[in-house]
Amino acid sequence: GDSVTQMEGPVTLSEEAFLTINCTYTATGYPSLFWYVQYPGEGLQLLLKATKADDKGSNKGFEATYRKETTSFHLEKGSVQVSDSAVYFCALSDAGAGSYQLTFGKGTKLSVIP
Amino acid sequence: GAGVSQSPSNKVTEKGKDVELRCDPISGHTALYWYRQSLGQGLEFLIYFQGNSAPDKSGLPSDRFSAERTGGSVSTLTIQRTQQEDSAVYLCASSLTRAADTQYFGPGTRLTVL
Fold it and tell me: Element (H or E) spanning B66, and its range?
């Protein structure tokens, strides 16, 4: 079945540091890929998505590129802020294979210190 | 506009009791999903509904779990004879259609089984 593997946390960075959170996937079909974010005390929010190979999703300074050849969708941000402290989830849906639900990675907790 | 709402926000129950959790999706969204989030298992898919089609129940962990969606809108997740391992945050999400793959999440119901 489909699965998502993302780097274990927690990750602690200083403000303005560069962020990478690795995500790789296995899927039966041609999935859509997502990053969701959960801020402290809040619900899951879509951060960005990509639906086909080489697409780049971007939002709030975060970027991720759909790499079919390496089955990866790594999340990056050039300069993190304290307000980026949250749990980040990589996810996929595999509609082409008839699987419309999201399959999530375990989540990576990011803490940004001033 | 109004997002996905869930009630109650917190529910504490005794082992063996039945509980009902409610989800109101975004108006006009035809697809509705239930997930649960627990420390040990991460985010797991439970069930989804698309319009008047038969629901996909493939993620339900046991026959103690059931869900219905009335009138293509509000959904209720029922857990019978609750067990301590059912303690988790239950999340509801909706999307415009099954194929419109961006899912919007509610704030969740935190269930604690004593």
Answer: strand B65-69
If you search the block for the tokens 């990750």, which residue do you land on? A11
Q: Does A106 touch chain B (CB under 8 A)?
A: yes
Q: List the structure tokens of B50.
A: 């698309």
A-chain residues near B89 (CB < 8 A):
none
Handedness of CA A82, A83, A84, A88 (dihedral sign): positive
User: A51 contacts in B (CB within 8 Å)?
Assistant: 101
Q: How far is A65 from chain B (nearest CA, A)?
A: 17
pLDDT tens by residue, A56-105 = 999 999 999 999 999 999 999 999 999 999 999 999 998 877 778 999 99
Q: Which residue of A has its CA nearest to B94?
A: A101
CA distance A66 to A72: 6
Query: Strand, coil or helix: what is B30?
Result: coil
